[in-house]
ABM domain-containing protein
Amino acid sequence: MYAVKQLAANEYAHTDPLTTPVEKCFDWGKELGDLVECHGREFYLVVFRSIRKSTANSEMLYKADAAAQEEARISGGLLKYWYGILNERRECLAMCIWASRDDAVKAIHKPAHRVAMKLASAMYDMYTLERYCLKIDEKLVPTFTLLGSLSY
């Protein structure tokens, strides 16, 4: 069984999380080798870029996120995740790599994920959800195809 693993980000994911292209946030070749071994070469990537409200209850937000992540891990399909640390402008980047779009869609209907989603308007000044098809070639070079983006 494959264990969910946390991605290791580079400095751009923290210093400029709202505009740094997803391709530049991680050493993808290093991060993806174990995925290819266990799951093939095509995945579904969800990226969450945000500016947290100065009044946000961070403890409540972290607990809701942790519960949603654990629920997704148990239900299957979540392969890798990364939840960034707020920078001085309260900006943050988070992302999940899923085995498939279907797995991600199933997760958003689970109870803990629904709780976390309901917190968004109270906790963020703005946020953007980006969805990608992530393909990895034989040399572990990733290709990211944007499938859609929504900003709130």
User: Anything to note?
Assistant: The mean pLDDT is 91.
